[in-house]
Amino acid sequence: MRKLRNNELGRISVDEFKQSNKTPIIVVLDNIRSLNNVGSVFRTSDAFLIEKIYLCGITATPPNKEIHKTALGATESVDWEHVEDTVELIQKLKDSKIKVLSIEQADNSTMLNDFSVEEHQKYAVVFGNEVKGVQQKVVSASDVCIEIPQLGTKHSLNISVSCGVVLWDLFTKIRK
Question: What is the pLDDT of residue 63?
Answer without folding.
Answer: 96
